[in-house]
Design the sequence.
């Protein structure tokens, strides 16, 4: 297939749904409401044992910004070693300097530790002060692709920049649009960005199956999952593009 679809896996059930629906790759994450952080050892291990498609855990020790301390950097290095030992296909990273540039030194170290796994640079890219310079820096450190919304909240609003990045990349790195990508806008994004890989959460919310709910706790017990039909729709549109 000319196009590839990456789906975020926030739960093991989401991963299995995405694979069965035709996804080509899973970005494995925990904590959806913080934008995704590194999954547990058990989650990564179980996902690897049950998935035949590509598995790329995110390496992000916390939510918030992408300016990390030295001790957080040590956590990231250890998490990458875990992913390698568990047989993952790649990892997803991103570290910035305080001035909005790519932290080339530390990102390069992570790429070297990850080898022979591949490396995606995540949407920390959308917080950089010069996307074209940032892309060249990311190419120079050896990343395989960049996940980006074109420095907008939604990829559909960043399609002009996404198109320019694809042109400048000139097949040296994959530009993968993500954020708000769905079956309603994927055809437009394919046409207007010239990208060949896309990233979606295909997100839905699952209500708790608990029979007893303690009303005094005032808790939301919904969980995030992936929509099989939505993933299938996107794959079907790819086949007709």
Sequence:
């Amino acid at each position: 297939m000319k196009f590839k679809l990456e789906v975020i896996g926030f739960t093991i059930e989401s991963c299995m749904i995405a694979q069965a629906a035709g996804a080509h790759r899973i970005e494995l994450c925990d904590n959806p409401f913080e934008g995704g952080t590194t999954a547990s050892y058990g989650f990564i291990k179980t996902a690897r044992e049950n998935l035949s498609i590509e598995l790329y855990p995110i390496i992000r020790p916390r939510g918030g910004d992408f300016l990390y301390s030295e001790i957080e950097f040590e956590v990231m290095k250890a998490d990458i070693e875990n992913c390698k030992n568990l047989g993952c296909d790649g990892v997803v990273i991103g570290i910035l300097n305080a001035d909005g540039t790519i932290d080339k030194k530390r990102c390069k170290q992570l790429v070297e530790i990850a080898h022979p796994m591949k490396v995606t640079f995540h949407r920390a890219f959308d917080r950089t002060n010069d996307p074209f310079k940032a892309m060249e820096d990311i190419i120079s450190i050896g990343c395989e692709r960049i996940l980006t919304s074109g420095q907008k909240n939604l990829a559909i609003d960043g399609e002009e920049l996404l198109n320019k990045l694809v042109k400048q990349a000139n097949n040296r790195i994959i530009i993968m649009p993500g954020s708000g990508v769905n079956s309603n806008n994927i055809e437009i994004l394919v046409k207007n960005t010239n990208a060949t890989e896309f990233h979606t959460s295909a997100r839905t919310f699952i209500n708790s199956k608990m029979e007893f709910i303690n009303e005094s706790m005032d808790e939301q017990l919904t969980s995030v999952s992936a929509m099989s039909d939505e993933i299938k729709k996107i794959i079907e549109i790819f086949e007709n593009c």
